[in-house]
Amino acid sequence: MRLELRWCDVEELTAASATRLAGRRLEVDLDALRALLSSDARLTRIRLDLVHPDERCRIGRVFDVIAPRAKVDGGEDFPGVLGRVARAGHGRTLALSGVAVVATDQQTENVGILAVIDMAGPNAVLSAFGRTHNVVISAWPASGVDRSDYLAAVRLAALKTSVYLAQTARDAKPDRVEVFELPPSPRVPVELAHLPRVAYVFQIHSHQRPTGLDEGILYGDPVRRMLPTIVHPNEVLDGAVLRGFMGRSVTTWATQNHPMIRALYAQHGRTLWFAGVVVTVAHATEPERVRSAFLTAGLVAHTLGADGAVLTKIGGGAPHVDMAQAAAQCEALGVRTTAVVEDMSTDGSAEGMLLFDFPGVDALVNVGSSQEPITLPAMDRVVGADDLAPKLLGETRTTYGGLCGAIEQIGATRVMAEVR
Amino acid sequence: MRGAPRLRRGGPNVGGLGAISGPHVIDVVDGAVGAARAVQQALGDAGTVVATVICGDNYAAEHADRAAAELVAVVAAARPDLVIAGPAFLAGRYGVACGALCAAVQAQLKIPAVTGMHAENPGVELYRRQVYVVPTGSEATRMLDEVKRLVALGLKLARGEAIGAPAAEGYFARGVTRNVVVEAAAADRAVAMLLDKLAGRPVASEVPRPAFPRVPAPRLIKTLEGATIALVTDGGLVPRGNPDGIEALNATRYGAYSIEGKTGLDAAQYDNPHRGYDTTWVKQDPNRLVPVDVARELEQSGAIGKLHETVYSTVGVATTLAHSARMGQEIAEKLRAAGVDAVILTST
After folding, report:
1. Residue of A nearest to B210 (CA)
2. B160 and B232 part of one domain
3. Structural domains for chain A
4. Is the pTM of this model over 0.90?
5. Element containing residue B306 per DSSP (H, E)
6. For B43-55, what is each residue's pLDDT tens digit?
């Protein structure tokens, strides 16, 4: 399967009377975009803000971030959620770099579950979204719209915006074309047969909370009771997997630019053979967890024939153990593993970093502690959180987990908890 | 005499602590004596040893609290900017005394402190979490070199400079974590680590394996028909209003709730602050979390001897190991004192 990401670099983002890409300047007709998003009856007022790197601006109430992408040649955009259900991961996809769509949550009173993005100051460099031009969507729920429907509507608005922006690159000459091509896993050329076969086990959701009916995660499926399954890595890069509605330290943007899949592609054919991706979900009960762990290991060892596997998790403590159980089952079948964990300690003690100790699960990379406090300096403007502006304008405190994009559990980030 | 300097005011002023074997109590000498002379030599122009405190290590070991209080008083009078204790090398009682003093000085006087000792000195394990302990040899054969390392780290502390990783700065890992920004993204590090593991090359995991103590389950020495059974949960059951203020995550508290006269838990009387799972169904029927209804039936039918009339409950999500162990011990002691033979622990 072959996927082309046709990248256009955006260096400027402005409001204009028509939406178009003029060289490296993306001009957006905000009225037209607002009209497009207003067609969803679950939303009432919609506000759009443009914010820029180095602007002394803080985005509050951040729910998720989406990368602008649009299929060409008749492919479906975000199949199963925005577009109709169809295979993703092949053909050509338009992609804008330097710009992101930020969806905010205007409904919840429990703002502790939401995050911020700083566009300037010391925290801007910690997050990919402190360095992009951002289209910030604030949408309020129509009366009587429940939580799950509201979040589905907010996410859909962000996906529509993503496609609307990327479509401006339809006639542009891309700045670069990135090709992702991986043959069916067993077809290894004889001269590369000596390379270790490596699989990626991608936990795409945690059932610590059940998914809503409209909470499409894999091709629009809310992955309730999903058993581990194999997908082509290109499907992940091309919009088949979206983040669920609960997700600190994970963004859809990171999944669309999946760092682990890119890292494996970068080594593919050189130091390893990329054997494929197994997608899993973390479960709420022990039998489901055990079943998922051994089925995952079976797919990795017996179907993909992998010598090694790298695993990542999503969510909190239960998924962390879930992932480790899958890794332990892989090790038991002779598949060597590394796993990416968060520092789970809540008191900064090294003893509390891990919630498991399984044989063989001894090669761990960490993405830092999401609990560690971080200072947010004073800013000139707050976007996306009018109600919180008095607090968010001044110097205040949050945690690494509360700074969107500082920690991406799938490994896009460079924060690490060091034992001292 | 084995030396142990402490140091004072970062620019020019330094103090030192020495220890001697025997019943000696505490002595303060102006300037540097004994090992503190090595400290002064290592400091050069960077600071001055203002006082050396000498303490019998038997005294410090046998009257730890009193000795620590006296030492703190002496240090307070000398008003140093930094305290250097040791090096204690492999001398166990001395190492423990150095650790205790440094910890007390830091906590009570807010003066940074550093000590040094051999990896096997019991003072390392006791105090490395609170105090910077520099590794040394087992005896004072390379005193000046080792004191130089203590002083270098001590000066950084006194100047309020950032302290780097244990390997880079030369101290025993304190077992605390700190977020840092590294060169490569986590995904790239994970793939590189896997390739190392597959090739049989050494792998430096970024997370130490925990040393979870194994607690063997005791045997029930009675039959169930004669046993008193208690119900305990970390699933967050609380009476409405959460009277003990049990935290929604990272809990430090637990509650003890009477079920006397109850044949089950009435949803109207209970709530659940737990933030680690969907509590919809246990709020709908708290017996799903703490099965008082079924346990009463078993009690009535004689399948169990007696149901203990107190339910213990906390919130088990992101709870620290330290608080978990403490709460577990406290609950276990109360259950034992009440004559409980066995516990049904429901988790979520």
Report:
1. A351
2. no
3. 2-176 (no CATH), 186-369 (3.40.50)
4. no
5. strand B306-307
6. 888 888 888 888 7
